[in-house]
Amino acid sequence: MDRRHFLATIALTSACSAKRLRVPTPLQSYRLPRVHVSNDRIIRTVVGLRPFRPSGFVVKTEVLEGKTIVHNYGHGGGGVTLSWGTAHLAVELALPTGATRMAVLGAGAVGLATARLLQEHGVQVTIYAKDLPPDTTSNIAGAQWFPVSVYDRDRATPAFLSQFVEAARFAYRRYQLMVGEYYGIRWMPNYSMSRQPFSDGGLGGSQSSIADLMPELRDLAPGDHPFPFPYVRQFDTMFIQPSIYLESMLREFRIAGGTILIHELRDLREVLALPQSVIVNCTGLGAKALFNDQELIPIKGQLTVLLPQPEIEYATEPPGLYMFPRRDGILLGGTHERGNWDVQPNREAEARIIAGHAAVFRDMRA
Ligand SMILES: Cc1cc2nc3c(=O)[nH]c(=O)nc-3n(C[C@H](O)[C@H](O)[C@H](O)COP(=O)(O)OP(=O)(O)OC[C@H]3O[C@@H](n4cnc5c(N)ncnc54)[C@H](O)[C@@H]3O)c2cc1C
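Above are the sequence and the flavin-adenine dinucleotide SMILES. Below is the predicted complex in C-alpha coordinate form.
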Protein backbone atom coordinates (compact mmCIF):
# COMPACT_ATOMS: atom_id res chain seq x y z
CA MET A 1 0.00 0.00 0.00
CA ASP A 2 1.54 3.31 -1.03
CA ARG A 3 1.01 6.85 0.26
CA ARG A 4 -1.52 7.80 -2.41
CA HIS A 5 -3.79 4.80 -1.75
CA PHE A 6 -3.49 5.31 1.97
CA LEU A 7 -4.46 8.97 1.74
CA ALA A 8 -7.28 8.22 -0.68
CA THR A 9 -8.83 5.78 1.73
CA ILE A 10 -8.30 7.91 4.77
CA ALA A 11 -10.15 10.73 3.02
CA LEU A 12 -12.91 8.45 1.83
CA THR A 13 -13.49 7.01 5.25
CA SER A 14 -13.50 10.48 6.72
CA ALA A 15 -16.01 11.77 4.23
CA CYS A 16 -18.87 11.24 6.63
CA SER A 17 -17.53 14.14 8.63
CA ALA A 18 -17.68 16.58 5.75
CA LYS A 19 -15.85 19.28 7.62
CA ARG A 20 -12.64 17.26 7.28
CA LEU A 21 -12.59 17.71 3.51
CA ARG A 22 -12.39 20.73 1.27
CA VAL A 23 -12.00 23.27 4.01
CA PRO A 24 -10.44 26.04 1.89
CA THR A 25 -7.53 27.91 3.37
CA PRO A 26 -6.65 31.24 1.71
CA LEU A 27 -3.49 31.05 -0.39
CA GLN A 28 -1.87 33.97 1.37
CA SER A 29 -2.02 32.09 4.67
CA TYR A 30 0.42 29.46 3.36
CA ARG A 31 3.40 31.65 2.46
CA LEU A 32 5.52 28.59 1.91
CA PRO A 33 9.17 29.29 1.09
CA ARG A 34 10.70 27.37 -1.83
CA VAL A 35 13.16 24.53 -1.46
CA HIS A 36 16.30 25.32 -3.48
CA VAL A 37 17.00 22.22 -5.55
CA SER A 38 20.22 22.03 -7.57
CA ASN A 39 23.13 19.65 -7.97
CA ASP A 40 25.56 21.99 -6.22
CA ARG A 41 23.46 21.83 -3.03
CA ILE A 42 23.79 18.02 -2.67
CA ILE A 43 25.62 16.99 0.50
CA ARG A 44 25.14 13.22 0.28
CA THR A 45 23.16 10.40 -1.34
CA VAL A 46 22.41 7.37 0.81
CA VAL A 47 20.79 3.98 0.25
CA GLY A 48 18.84 1.76 2.66
CA LEU A 49 17.09 -1.59 2.29
CA ARG A 50 13.55 -1.66 3.71
CA PRO A 51 12.78 -5.07 5.32
CA PHE A 52 9.56 -5.92 3.49
CA ARG A 53 7.16 -8.87 3.64
CA PRO A 54 4.16 -8.81 1.27
CA SER A 55 1.93 -10.26 4.01
CA GLY A 56 3.21 -7.75 6.57
CA PHE A 57 5.47 -7.69 9.62
CA VAL A 58 5.86 -10.71 11.91
CA VAL A 59 5.01 -10.49 15.60
CA LYS A 60 4.62 -14.00 16.99
CA THR A 61 6.13 -16.47 19.45
CA GLU A 62 8.11 -19.57 18.56
CA VAL A 63 9.52 -22.06 21.08
CA LEU A 64 12.78 -23.68 20.01
CA GLU A 65 14.81 -26.05 22.18
CA GLY A 66 13.18 -24.70 25.32
CA LYS A 67 13.81 -21.03 24.43
CA THR A 68 11.01 -18.58 23.69
CA ILE A 69 11.69 -16.53 20.57
CA VAL A 70 9.38 -13.55 20.09
CA HIS A 71 9.67 -12.23 16.54
CA ASN A 72 9.24 -8.55 15.74
CA TYR A 73 10.57 -7.80 12.26
CA GLY A 74 9.67 -7.08 8.63
CA HIS A 75 8.23 -3.56 8.84
CA GLY A 76 8.93 -2.49 5.23
CA GLY A 77 8.74 1.28 4.77
CA GLY A 78 7.06 1.90 8.13
CA GLY A 79 9.42 0.52 10.75
CA VAL A 80 10.19 3.78 12.52
CA THR A 81 6.49 4.66 12.47
CA LEU A 82 5.27 1.34 13.86
CA SER A 83 8.24 0.51 16.13
CA TRP A 84 6.56 1.35 19.45
CA GLY A 85 3.37 -0.36 18.36
CA THR A 86 4.85 -3.70 17.35
CA ALA A 87 7.15 -3.45 20.39
CA HIS A 88 3.94 -3.29 22.45
CA LEU A 89 2.58 -6.41 20.71
CA ALA A 90 5.88 -8.26 21.22
CA VAL A 91 6.14 -7.28 24.87
CA GLU A 92 2.60 -8.60 25.42
CA LEU A 93 3.85 -11.97 24.14
CA ALA A 94 7.12 -11.91 26.12
CA LEU A 95 5.89 -10.85 29.58
CA PRO A 96 3.69 -13.90 30.31
CA THR A 97 6.86 -16.06 30.28
CA GLY A 98 7.66 -14.48 33.64
CA ALA A 99 11.35 -14.11 32.69
CA THR A 100 13.10 -11.18 34.36
CA ARG A 101 16.08 -11.17 31.98
CA MET A 102 15.60 -11.08 28.22
CA ALA A 103 17.69 -10.63 25.08
CA VAL A 104 16.74 -8.25 22.30
CA LEU A 105 18.42 -8.88 18.95
CA GLY A 106 18.95 -5.65 16.98
CA ALA A 107 19.38 -1.97 17.81
CA GLY A 108 17.37 -0.27 15.08
CA ALA A 109 14.14 1.61 15.81
CA VAL A 110 12.27 -1.66 16.43
CA GLY A 111 14.84 -3.23 18.76
CA LEU A 112 15.31 -0.05 20.79
CA ALA A 113 11.58 0.56 21.28
CA THR A 114 11.12 -3.10 22.28
CA ALA A 115 14.02 -2.93 24.73
CA ARG A 116 12.70 0.27 26.32
CA LEU A 117 9.18 -1.10 26.75
CA LEU A 118 10.56 -4.27 28.36
CA GLN A 119 12.60 -2.11 30.74
CA GLU A 120 9.47 -0.17 31.64
CA HIS A 121 8.01 -3.52 32.77
CA GLY A 122 11.01 -4.22 34.99
CA VAL A 123 12.85 -6.60 32.66
CA GLN A 124 16.68 -6.62 32.65
CA VAL A 125 17.51 -6.33 28.94
CA THR A 126 20.66 -7.14 26.98
CA ILE A 127 20.77 -5.98 23.37
CA TYR A 128 22.88 -8.02 20.93
CA ALA A 129 23.44 -6.18 17.66
CA LYS A 130 25.78 -6.40 14.71
CA ASP A 131 25.52 -2.64 14.20
CA LEU A 132 24.42 0.24 16.38
CA PRO A 133 23.15 3.67 15.31
CA PRO A 134 24.28 5.46 13.16
CA ASP A 135 24.90 2.30 11.11
CA THR A 136 21.36 0.84 10.98
CA THR A 137 18.70 1.03 8.28
CA SER A 138 16.62 3.00 10.77
CA ASN A 139 19.19 5.80 10.49
CA ILE A 140 18.48 6.07 6.75
CA ALA A 141 14.71 6.52 7.19
CA GLY A 142 13.03 9.89 6.48
CA ALA A 143 11.31 9.45 8.91
CA GLN A 144 7.75 10.51 8.46
CA TRP A 145 5.19 9.04 10.89
CA PHE A 146 3.06 7.30 8.31
CA PRO A 147 2.29 3.56 8.23
CA VAL A 148 2.69 2.96 4.49
CA SER A 149 4.62 0.47 2.32
CA VAL A 150 4.20 -2.04 5.15
CA TYR A 151 2.31 -4.81 3.27
CA ASP A 152 0.60 -5.67 -0.03
CA ARG A 153 -3.16 -5.24 0.11
CA ASP A 154 -3.86 -8.56 -1.58
CA ARG A 155 -1.69 -10.48 0.90
CA ALA A 156 -2.73 -9.05 4.26
CA THR A 157 -4.94 -11.29 6.41
CA PRO A 158 -7.63 -9.97 8.80
CA ALA A 159 -5.46 -11.17 11.71
CA PHE A 160 -2.51 -9.15 10.43
CA LEU A 161 -4.64 -6.04 9.80
CA SER A 162 -5.87 -6.20 13.36
CA GLN A 163 -2.26 -6.25 14.62
CA PHE A 164 -1.41 -3.44 12.21
CA VAL A 165 -4.18 -1.17 13.49
CA GLU A 166 -3.33 -1.86 17.13
CA ALA A 167 0.36 -1.17 16.47
CA ALA A 168 -0.33 2.05 14.54
CA ARG A 169 -2.57 3.39 17.30
CA PHE A 170 -0.13 2.57 20.10
CA ALA A 171 2.83 4.06 18.23
CA TYR A 172 0.93 7.21 17.31
CA ARG A 173 0.17 7.90 20.96
CA ARG A 174 3.66 7.04 22.18
CA TYR A 175 5.44 9.32 19.70
CA GLN A 176 3.23 12.23 20.72
CA LEU A 177 4.73 12.00 24.21
CA MET A 178 8.22 12.35 22.72
CA VAL A 179 7.75 15.44 20.55
CA GLY A 180 10.55 17.96 21.09
CA GLU A 181 14.25 18.59 20.61
CA TYR A 182 15.48 15.77 22.89
CA TYR A 183 14.08 13.02 20.65
CA GLY A 184 14.19 15.08 17.44
CA ILE A 185 10.44 14.75 16.76
CA ARG A 186 8.13 17.49 15.44
CA TRP A 187 4.74 17.96 13.79
CA MET A 188 4.58 19.31 10.24
CA PRO A 189 2.02 19.80 7.49
CA ASN A 190 2.33 17.54 4.44
CA TYR A 191 1.12 18.27 0.92
CA SER A 192 0.39 15.25 -1.27
CA MET A 193 -0.03 16.17 -4.95
CA SER A 194 -1.74 14.51 -7.89
CA ARG A 195 -2.69 15.12 -11.51
CA GLN A 196 -5.89 13.08 -11.02
CA PRO A 197 -8.53 13.41 -8.33
CA PHE A 198 -7.69 11.37 -5.24
CA SER A 199 -9.84 8.29 -5.45
CA ASP A 200 -10.58 5.21 -3.41
CA GLY A 201 -7.52 3.01 -3.48
CA GLY A 202 -9.75 -0.01 -3.10
CA LEU A 203 -8.48 -0.78 0.38
CA GLY A 204 -10.21 -3.02 2.82
CA GLY A 205 -11.90 -1.67 5.91
CA SER A 206 -8.87 -1.68 8.17
CA GLN A 207 -7.73 1.79 7.24
CA SER A 208 -11.02 3.33 8.24
CA SER A 209 -10.25 2.59 11.85
CA ILE A 210 -7.14 4.76 11.76
CA ALA A 211 -8.59 7.65 9.77
CA ASP A 212 -8.40 9.78 12.89
CA LEU A 213 -4.59 9.45 12.88
CA MET A 214 -4.42 12.04 10.08
CA PRO A 215 -5.70 15.19 11.83
CA GLU A 216 -6.92 18.08 9.71
CA LEU A 217 -6.85 16.00 6.55
CA ARG A 218 -8.32 18.16 3.80
CA ASP A 219 -8.39 18.60 0.03
CA LEU A 220 -7.25 22.02 -1.17
CA ALA A 221 -8.88 23.74 -4.12
CA PRO A 222 -6.46 24.86 -6.88
CA GLY A 223 -6.56 28.45 -5.68
CA ASP A 224 -5.85 27.45 -2.11
CA HIS A 225 -2.31 26.13 -2.52
CA PRO A 226 0.87 27.19 -4.34
CA PHE A 227 1.80 23.85 -5.95
CA PRO A 228 1.77 23.15 -9.73
CA PHE A 229 -0.76 20.30 -9.42
CA PRO A 230 -4.56 20.42 -9.70
CA TYR A 231 -5.15 18.14 -6.71
CA VAL A 232 -3.46 18.65 -3.36
CA ARG A 233 -4.28 16.91 -0.09
CA GLN A 234 -3.01 18.29 3.20
CA PHE A 235 -2.59 16.52 6.52
CA ASP A 236 -0.40 16.90 9.59
CA THR A 237 1.88 14.23 10.96
CA MET A 238 5.05 13.80 13.02
CA PHE A 239 8.59 13.60 11.68
CA ILE A 240 11.34 11.76 13.51
CA GLN A 241 14.98 12.69 12.87
CA PRO A 242 16.69 9.30 13.28
CA SER A 243 20.19 10.62 14.09
CA ILE A 244 18.79 12.42 17.15
CA TYR A 245 16.01 9.98 18.05
CA LEU A 246 18.07 6.77 17.96
CA GLU A 247 20.94 8.30 19.97
CA SER A 248 18.46 9.45 22.64
CA MET A 249 16.89 5.98 22.69
CA LEU A 250 20.32 4.38 23.19
CA ARG A 251 21.07 6.86 25.98
CA GLU A 252 17.74 6.17 27.73
CA PHE A 253 18.28 2.42 27.39
CA ARG A 254 21.69 2.70 29.09
CA ILE A 255 20.40 5.04 31.82
CA ALA A 256 17.72 2.45 32.63
CA GLY A 257 20.45 -0.15 33.22
CA GLY A 258 20.45 -1.92 29.85
CA THR A 259 23.49 -3.70 28.44
CA ILE A 260 24.56 -3.49 24.80
CA LEU A 261 26.83 -6.09 23.23
CA ILE A 262 28.07 -5.59 19.68
CA HIS A 263 27.73 -9.12 18.44
CA GLU A 264 26.76 -10.66 15.12
CA LEU A 265 24.68 -13.81 15.45
CA ARG A 266 25.68 -15.93 12.50
CA ASP A 267 23.02 -18.64 12.71
CA LEU A 268 20.16 -20.04 14.74
CA ARG A 269 22.55 -22.20 16.78
CA GLU A 270 24.27 -19.06 18.06
CA VAL A 271 20.91 -17.46 18.90
CA LEU A 272 19.83 -20.49 20.92
CA ALA A 273 23.19 -20.48 22.75
CA LEU A 274 22.48 -17.05 24.29
CA PRO A 275 22.10 -17.19 28.08
CA GLN A 276 18.60 -15.63 28.19
CA SER A 277 15.58 -17.95 27.95
CA VAL A 278 13.46 -15.29 26.18
CA ILE A 279 14.84 -13.69 23.03
CA VAL A 280 13.07 -10.95 21.06
CA ASN A 281 14.12 -10.94 17.43
CA CYS A 282 14.26 -7.38 16.01
CA THR A 283 16.89 -7.95 13.33
CA GLY A 284 14.98 -6.37 10.41
CA LEU A 285 16.27 -7.73 7.12
CA GLY A 286 18.79 -9.82 9.09
CA ALA A 287 15.92 -12.16 10.05
CA LYS A 288 15.88 -13.55 6.52
CA ALA A 289 19.12 -15.47 6.97
CA LEU A 290 18.94 -15.92 10.73
CA PHE A 291 15.43 -17.44 10.81
CA ASN A 292 15.17 -18.57 7.19
CA ASP A 293 12.24 -16.30 6.29
CA GLN A 294 11.94 -16.63 2.53
CA GLU A 295 9.18 -14.02 2.29
CA LEU A 296 11.39 -11.23 3.61
CA ILE A 297 12.84 -9.11 0.78
CA PRO A 298 14.65 -5.77 0.52
CA ILE A 299 13.02 -2.72 -1.02
CA LYS A 300 15.90 -0.46 -1.93
CA GLY A 301 15.36 3.20 -1.14
CA GLN A 302 17.62 6.12 -1.96
CA LEU A 303 17.71 9.61 -0.51
CA THR A 304 19.59 12.62 -1.80
CA VAL A 305 20.21 15.20 0.90
CA LEU A 306 20.58 18.92 0.16
CA LEU A 307 22.03 21.66 2.35
CA PRO A 308 19.70 22.45 5.27
CA GLN A 309 17.05 25.17 4.86
CA PRO A 310 15.77 25.88 8.38
CA GLU A 311 12.88 27.97 7.02
CA ILE A 312 11.25 24.92 5.38
CA GLU A 313 8.59 23.67 7.79
CA TYR A 314 6.47 21.51 5.49
CA ALA A 315 6.80 18.24 3.56
CA THR A 316 5.76 17.59 -0.05
CA GLU A 317 4.82 14.46 -1.96
CA PRO A 318 4.49 15.03 -5.69
CA PRO A 319 3.71 11.84 -7.67
CA GLY A 320 6.52 9.32 -7.13
CA LEU A 321 8.63 11.72 -5.04
CA TYR A 322 8.87 13.09 -1.51
CA MET A 323 10.66 15.95 0.25
CA PHE A 324 11.15 15.92 4.03
CA PRO A 325 12.93 18.89 5.63
CA ARG A 326 15.21 18.10 8.57
CA ARG A 327 17.69 20.01 10.69
CA ASP A 328 20.52 18.06 9.04
CA GLY A 329 19.37 18.65 5.46
CA ILE A 330 16.54 18.56 2.96
CA LEU A 331 15.74 14.93 2.09
CA LEU A 332 14.68 14.17 -1.46
CA GLY A 333 13.39 10.67 -2.10
CA GLY A 334 11.34 8.60 -4.41
CA THR A 335 12.73 5.09 -5.07
CA HIS A 336 11.24 1.69 -4.13
CA GLU A 337 13.14 -1.14 -5.84
CA ARG A 338 11.83 -4.53 -4.75
CA GLY A 339 14.35 -7.32 -4.43
CA ASN A 340 17.34 -5.07 -5.06
CA TRP A 341 20.16 -5.78 -2.56
CA ASP A 342 22.58 -3.24 -4.07
CA VAL A 343 23.49 -0.58 -1.49
CA GLN A 344 25.34 1.62 -3.99
CA PRO A 345 23.59 4.85 -5.04
CA ASN A 346 21.95 4.76 -8.45
CA ARG A 347 23.06 7.98 -10.19
CA GLU A 348 20.24 7.85 -12.75
CA ALA A 349 17.70 7.70 -9.94
CA GLU A 350 19.47 10.58 -8.23
CA ALA A 351 19.25 12.70 -11.41
CA ARG A 352 15.54 11.85 -11.80
CA ILE A 353 14.80 12.79 -8.19
CA ILE A 354 16.69 16.08 -8.40
CA ALA A 355 15.05 17.02 -11.72
CA GLY A 356 11.56 16.11 -10.46
CA HIS A 357 11.81 18.14 -7.28
CA ALA A 358 13.52 21.05 -9.07
CA ALA A 359 10.55 21.28 -11.46
CA VAL A 360 8.00 21.29 -8.62
CA PHE A 361 9.71 24.09 -6.69
CA ARG A 362 10.49 26.07 -9.84
CA ASP A 363 6.81 26.08 -10.82
CA MET A 364 5.50 26.64 -7.29
CA ARG A 365 3.90 30.05 -6.68
CA ALA A 366 6.04 31.89 -4.17
C1 LIG B 1 15.05 5.45 2.03
C2 LIG B 1 14.21 4.98 3.19
C3 LIG B 1 13.23 5.80 3.71
C4 LIG B 1 12.44 5.37 4.78
N1 LIG B 1 11.51 6.23 5.29
C5 LIG B 1 10.74 5.83 6.33
C6 LIG B 1 9.80 6.73 6.91
O1 LIG B 1 9.64 7.87 6.45
N2 LIG B 1 9.06 6.28 7.98
C7 LIG B 1 9.22 5.02 8.49
O2 LIG B 1 8.54 4.68 9.45
N3 LIG B 1 10.10 4.15 7.95
C8 LIG B 1 10.87 4.52 6.88
N4 LIG B 1 11.76 3.63 6.33
C9 LIG B 1 11.75 2.23 6.76
C10 LIG B 1 12.55 2.02 8.01
O3 LIG B 1 13.86 2.50 7.82
C11 LIG B 1 12.59 0.53 8.38
O4 LIG B 1 11.29 -0.02 8.38
C12 LIG B 1 13.17 0.38 9.78
O5 LIG B 1 14.45 0.97 9.81
C13 LIG B 1 13.27 -1.06 10.22
O6 LIG B 1 13.78 -1.03 11.53
P1 LIG B 1 14.43 -2.30 12.21
O7 LIG B 1 14.80 -1.90 13.59
O8 LIG B 1 13.51 -3.46 12.01
O9 LIG B 1 15.71 -2.63 11.31
P2 LIG B 1 17.19 -1.99 11.32
O10 LIG B 1 17.18 -0.55 11.51
O11 LIG B 1 17.82 -2.55 10.08
O12 LIG B 1 17.88 -2.66 12.58
C14 LIG B 1 18.21 -4.04 12.59
C15 LIG B 1 19.18 -4.31 13.72
O13 LIG B 1 19.43 -5.71 13.76
C16 LIG B 1 20.81 -5.94 13.72
N5 LIG B 1 21.06 -7.26 13.10
C17 LIG B 1 20.64 -7.70 11.90
N6 LIG B 1 21.09 -8.95 11.71
C18 LIG B 1 21.78 -9.30 12.81
C19 LIG B 1 22.48 -10.47 13.22
N7 LIG B 1 22.57 -11.54 12.43
N8 LIG B 1 23.09 -10.46 14.43
C20 LIG B 1 23.04 -9.38 15.24
N9 LIG B 1 22.39 -8.25 14.90
C21 LIG B 1 21.77 -8.22 13.69
C22 LIG B 1 21.35 -4.78 12.92
O14 LIG B 1 22.76 -4.62 13.13
C23 LIG B 1 20.54 -3.64 13.53
O15 LIG B 1 21.08 -3.26 14.77
C24 LIG B 1 12.60 4.06 5.30
C25 LIG B 1 13.59 3.24 4.79
C26 LIG B 1 14.39 3.68 3.74
C27 LIG B 1 15.47 2.77 3.22
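Residues 158-176 form the longest helix (19 residues).
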